[in-house]
């Protein structure tokens, strides 16, 4: 049976003046997978994600997200996705409960559903004692877990995670990925950007970005095998070196 495409991208490009941030990328993402968008800072990962979320207009190319056209149906796309930015996902001057209520309202939850989901979320994260504390007082790891939980509170088809584990320790990073796996079990497709190459091992497939281009796209095991190496760091090093030779 053919896999269902939830994201389909063809020749997507974003230019800022003379600078090309994303250079004609083409790929598909299938329902129920964890799709990793990897690359160094400045590779074009966040720009590509912001276009797919309807937050940034493409310069050219085509794409559909959750079955909707990126140019004509951005508002419909926004009802089917969740989004978590590394820096701006929560309001630190609101309490835990107020953040949940605020974002639940943005995502269109009714009062009864919002009350139920808020209670469930707080209990599942073990934040009963912190529910009325300002988010700014929480450790970074807890903020990120809360931000992710809020991003999927409305059970979206796809959740976009932009560098979600930046700045936290390895144990907290692993706990965060447990939340991602749980979301996948609930039929949420995960699109995640990261510059941590070890996190590629957690993805079903990965796209490796180098200077705005997709330099490789496959499963982690196939990429390592194809390059004859044991780690994703080595794969990325090989791809970056090849790209540099081409530019020179």
Automatic annotation (TrEMBL):
It comes from Flagellimonas okinawensis. It holds the Pfam family ABC_tran. GO terms for molecular function: ATP binding. InterPro entries: AAA+_ATPase, ABC_transporter-like_ATP-bd, P-loop_NTPase. Keywords: ATP-binding, Nucleotide-binding. The keyword Translocase does not apply. Transmembrane segments: none annotated. The keyword ATP-binding applies. This is ABC transporter ATP-binding protein. Residues 7-236 form the ABC transporter domain. It comes from the Bacteria.
């Amino acid at each position: 049976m053919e896999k269902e495409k939830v994201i389909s991208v063809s020749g997507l490009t974003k230019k800022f003046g003379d600078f090309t941030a994303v250079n004609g990328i083409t790929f598909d993402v299938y329902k129920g997978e964890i799709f990793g968008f990897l690359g160094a800072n400045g590779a074009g990962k966040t720009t590509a994600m912001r276009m797919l979320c309807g937050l940034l207009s493409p310069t050219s190319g085509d794409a559909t997200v959750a079955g909707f056209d990126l140019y004509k149906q951005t508002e419909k796309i926004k009802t089917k996705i969740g989004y978590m930015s590394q820096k701006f996902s929560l309001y630190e001057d609101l309490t835990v409960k107020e953040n949940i209520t605020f974002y639940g309202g943005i995502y269109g939850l009714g009062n009864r559903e919002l009350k139920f989901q808020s209670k469930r979320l707080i209990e599942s994260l073990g934040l009963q004692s912190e529910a009325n504390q300002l988010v700014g007082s929480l450790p970074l790891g807890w903020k990120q877990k809360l931000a992710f939980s809020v991003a999927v509170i409305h059970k979206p088809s796809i959740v976009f995670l932009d560098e979600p584990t930046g700045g936290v320790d390895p144990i907290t990073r692993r706990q965060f990925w447990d939340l991602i796996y749980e979301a996948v079990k609930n039929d949420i497709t995960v699109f995640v950007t990261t510059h941590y190459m070890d996190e590629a091992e957690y993805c079903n497939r990965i796209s490796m970005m180098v200077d705005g281009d997709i330099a490789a796209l496959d499963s982690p095991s196939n990429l390592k095998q194809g390059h004859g190496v044991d780690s994703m760091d080595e794969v990325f090093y090989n791809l970056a070196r090849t790209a540099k030779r081409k530019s020179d």
